[in-house]
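Thread amino acids onto this structure.
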């Protein structure tokens, strides 16, 4: 029998424990957008590729988020993969009360009326196929319908509560 590595002292699972563990998990940074009475969007690190056939992705959104009422009804959403040059954009879409679609944000109305951000690494417009309750969040499942993978730069990452760039 092989000796196990030191795993430290286990802690009871709490929201704080989950946050502490996931601070150790480096994640790509995306912005999710939708159009309602006005455009809405938020920074997400929960973006996941779910299936290749048919193509499906998922992301989580809090039901207390200002974007949720629009996302709860949206038929289509925009998914934007941010580049390392877009830390300020990521921070704007993460900040409560920020003017996310103000003059400092480059965007246009795209397919299906979805707000598309400028200068991103890649983007997709997706049809929402399900919203799954998950505690104080919803997991949104969406099927890409159109997109562009050819933007400039390298990906932005989120780790230890900060936006980071890849190191060479």
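Threaded sequence (168 positions):
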């Amino acid at each position: 029998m092989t000796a196990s590595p030191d795993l430290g002292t286990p802690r009871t699972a709490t929201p704080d424990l989950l946050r502490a563990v996931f601070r150790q998990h480096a994640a790509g940074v995306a912005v999710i957008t939708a159009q309602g009475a006005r455009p809405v969007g938020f920074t997400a690190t929960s973006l996941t590729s779910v299936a290749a056939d048919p193509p499906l992705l998922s992301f989580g959104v809090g039901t207390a988020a200002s974007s949720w009422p629009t996302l709860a009804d949206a038929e289509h959403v925009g998914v934007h993969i941010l580049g390392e040059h877009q830390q300020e954009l990521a921070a704007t879409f993460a900040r409560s009360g920020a003017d996310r679609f103000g003059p400092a944000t480059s965007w246009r109305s795209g397919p299906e009326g979805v707000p598309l951000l400028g200068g991103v690494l890649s983007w997709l417009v997706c049809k929402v196929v399900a919203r799954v309750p998950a505690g104080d969040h919803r997991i949104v499942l969406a099927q890409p319908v159109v997109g562009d993978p050819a933007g400039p730069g390298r990906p932005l990452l989120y780790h230890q509560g900060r936006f980071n760039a890849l190191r060479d």
